[in-house]
Design a protein that fits this description.
Distance between the termini: 8 Å
Number of helices: 2
Strand content: 35-45%
Helix content: 10-25%
Number of strands: 8
Structural class: alpha/beta
Shape: globular
Strand order of the largest sheet: 1-4-3-2
Radius of gyration: 15 Å
Largest sheet: 4 strands, mixed
Order of helices and strands: EHEEEEHEEE
């Protein structure tokens, strides 16, 4: 079975969205695709970050002045990201200040991965398991 192109994009809220964008790009390896600034200084109304191995995430400032969607709680997200480079990515995440939750390990179901927290508490699991 071939997996279709990603159409499900997790959306997160951050107190300091510009800092989160920098962290996710520099620390995890996402690429900045689109950032829509808000009216207030440092406010992000909408941001799209692309994962180089497929898919991505969206994020925004938790306290934004425009938009009809209410922000989710900061630090409440848990995201799984597929990677073919878990060892390299694990070292990169820790070098950029991610907090290790679960160390790099091989799972019984065939995945190799780890879990870290970003500076605002969201949990990010990275692994080789691609799902069914």
């Amino acid at each position: 079975m071939t997996t279709p192109a990603p159409t499900c994009w997790p959306t997160l809220s951050y107190e300091d969205a510009p800092a989160a964008i920098r962290f996710l790009v520099e620390g995890f390896g996402f690429s900045e695709h689109l950032v829509v600034p808000g009216e207030a200084e440092g406010e992000v109304v909408h941001c799209e970050l692309v994962w180089p191995e497929g898919g991505g995430v969206m994020l925004a400032s938790a306290r934004r002045s425009v938009g009809e969607v209410t922000a989710t709680h900061v630090g409440a997200a848990s995201v799984y990201v597929v990677t073919d480079r878990p060892d390299e990515l694990h070292a990169r995440c820790l070098a950029h200040g991610a907090v290790e939750i679960r160390g790099l390990k091989d799972e019984d179901y065939g995945s190799r991965g780890f879990t870290v927290a970003d500076p605002e508490g969201n949990r990010w699991s990275f692994g080789t398991y691609r799902g069914a």
